């Protein structure tokens, strides 16, 4: 190491550092930062913009249409790269940065790396109050950017150029740490961005990172072995962490060697092929009858790479109260949930260790046969559910059409509303790691923006495959402008807009709890005094996409073939029924707050009915 220095602005040094950080993936060195998404304003254009101009070839900057969409795209990019690479988002001070709050929440809930480089008010305060500045009279240091402390794994505000020498490596380490992974926020005051400093040249030396694999301690493996050895009816819950750890082979080997049924979380969809004999289906509120039947009878649950959120656990009613948990997770917080016997470590390593310590152990053949019989019944239900003919158009039918026609390596993206449940229940996995159902934050608007980010990542490895987006009309209306982004950047998407006239799944919940339809479907919105349908086809075409409207699933299939053959984004619109055609089987109980008192008899009856099954709920012990 030498004492040589180079004089750079804070912004220039930040970008130069990122440009020299690499990661080794399958023997190939790639920049750990794949580039960024940016919308410029007075808080970032003059200094960060100047710094980014010179690295366009190595850190490409994608121009966003909305900062929230940029964050969604960055999150989906990180998912596609299994959290081994990330994108940055740069936004101006004030509302531009504030727009990133929702997407930061999504990345935090889903444990996804995303770097936010955001403008901030002047450190000197000489021009205060500046345009878009939030003034707090009793604390001049408190501003909009402080809101990100709740949705960031790492947060810093740079008040001197030298601080990035510590801050940037800390942010990078956080984003690449499997146990602490999540978004990193760095506030860059407008004046500090342009201030210069004599940085050590060594700070910008090329560095190649590797994802750390934490091995669980022997005592934890021994304790887990004791619990599993005493099981009669064990089951494995496979979460999204299995894929992030690249532990699919180890999971499959453990299940096959010891004859243990596997059920999947929403994030863990596509951990196993649909036709694998030990894949018993998705579990929980939006799961399958087969997986839920197995979960209910299991006496030991080996939870791998899952945070056990309520849609997986049926608000903790999906399992027998006396069942024991083994929590295999790199994160201590997740491994310890519900008095689990923790195995704290990387899933790939931990599953290998468990496999070795259970050598020769198998379980009652009748248990697996029961699970497989339940899966066969569920498969028959799904086959009928996705079939189309003399019945109303439904989400499930559209999913079945696309599932039949897509390439095994095509990626499917869905989020929020009714489609996550319908995709989770009805999609039959054709290849590993090909499903992104964003239900950690259940964020409307993720679908198209996330599809764009996923496609950017997919095009770097599998450019000949497609990214397929399922979205409802409600999510489309909330955020659709990245159709234009995908056309601008030649990142082709196939987008299915399934129009059921509003927020139909919440209308269904409203009705299921005894309430009258109100303010969810457009037709039931009292203030919508002029009923007007949206021409989604014309709207998508106006943004440069191929677009067409179809009347039924058969026409949808032909349109999907045309979209596959096209060289740019295609949007296919089909109306689906708001009331008929929902997947009615496979649901576990879900805790929802219902009115204890009401003048409406149906509401009172629904509350009584809802609470009547609460006795199955585990209390955390």
Name the features.
621 residues; alpha/beta; Rossmann fold; 4 domains; six-stranded parallel beta sheet; 24 helices
**What would CATH call the architecture of the largest domain?**
3-Layer(aba) Sandwich
Question: Structural class, from helix and strand content?
Answer: alpha/beta
Query: If you compute it from the alpha carbons, what radius of gyration comes out, rounded to the nearest whole angstrom?
Result: 25 Å
- Strands of the widest sheet, in order across it, are 5-4-6-7-9-8
* Strand coverage percent: 15-25%
Q: Enumerate how many helices there are, as a single number.
A: 24
List the helices and strands and how they pair.
Elements: E1 5-9, H1 10-19, E2 21-25, E3 28-31, E4 33-38, H2 48-53, E5 61-63, H3 67-80, E6 86-91, H4 95-98, H5 101-109, E7 114-120, E8 154-157, H6 164-176, E9 183-189, H7 190-194, E10 196-200, E11 207-209, H8 218-229, E12 234-238, H9 240-244, H10 248-258, E13 262-264, E14 279-282, H11 289-297, E15 300-304, H12 310-313, E16 324-329, H13 332-335, E17 341-344, H14 347-357, H15 365-386, H16 395-405, E18 411-415, H17 419-426, E19 435-438, H18 446-461, E20 467-472, H19 473-478, H20 482-488, E21 493-499, H21 504-512, H22 536-542, E22 546-550, H23 553-565, E23 570-575, H24 601-611
Parallel strand pairs: 2-11, 4-5, 4-6, 6-7, 7-9, 8-9, 12-13, 12-15, 13-14, 15-16, 16-17, 18-19, 18-20, 20-21, 21-23, 22-23
Antiparallel strand pairs: 1-10, 2-3
Helix pairs in contact: 3-5, 3-18, 8-14, 10-14, 11-15, 16-17, 16-23
